[in-house]
Design brief:
Blueprint lengths: L13 H14 L33 E4 L8 E4 L8 E4 L8 E4 L8 E4 L8 E4 L2 E2 L2 H15 L3
Parallel strand pairs: 1-2, 2-3, 3-4, 4-5, 5-6
Antiparallel strand pairs: 6-7
Length: 148
């Protein structure tokens, strides 16, 4: 492309710059959900699939009513979780799996109602359980809490 014949754009002062930026922003169509497949009622998500009611998520699949999550799958009502799967009602959990009602856990598996744990598994309210007892207690708690 020959740039020698192009006229340079006029100099801009603050007012002209601000006005043109506002015009460009207004002219831009709604962003939508770029790269998404089979999403419903999602807002500002990208590269997500089979998700419903999510906001600001990226590369999530099979997610429901989540906000700000990235690289997650099979999560429900979770916020700011990353690289995790099978989370329910959890917040700010990273690289974790099968958590329910957990916050700020990292690299954890099978935790219920835990906060701030790192590299733990089979915990309820931050207390360790053997595998068999964990599943029995969680089943009873879920039934009593109506989470089944």
């Amino acid at each position: 492309m020959n740039t020698q014949n192009q006229t340079p754009p006029p100099a801009l002062d603050k007012r002209a710059f601000t006005a043109e930026l506002a015009r460009l922003q207004k002219a831009l169509p709604e962003r939508g959900n770029p790269g998404c497949f089979n999403v419903e009622r999602c807002e500002n998500c990208s590269h997500c699939q089979f998700s419903t009611g999510c906001k600001n998520c990226h590369r999530c699949s099979y997610s429901t009513q989540c906000t700000g999550c990235t690289h997650c799958t099979h999560i429900e009502r979770s916020v700011d979780c990353h690289q995790s799967s099978h989370l329910v009602d959890s917040q700010r959990c990273v690289e974790s799996h099968y958590l329910v009602l957990c916050q700020d856990c990292a690299e954890c598996n099978y935790c219920f109602g835990c906060v701030g744990l790192v590299r733990k598994e089979f915990h309820i309210l931050n207390q360790p359980y053997d595998r068999k007892t964990y599943f029995a207690r969680v089943k009873a708690l879920k039934a009593e809490m109506g989470l089944v």
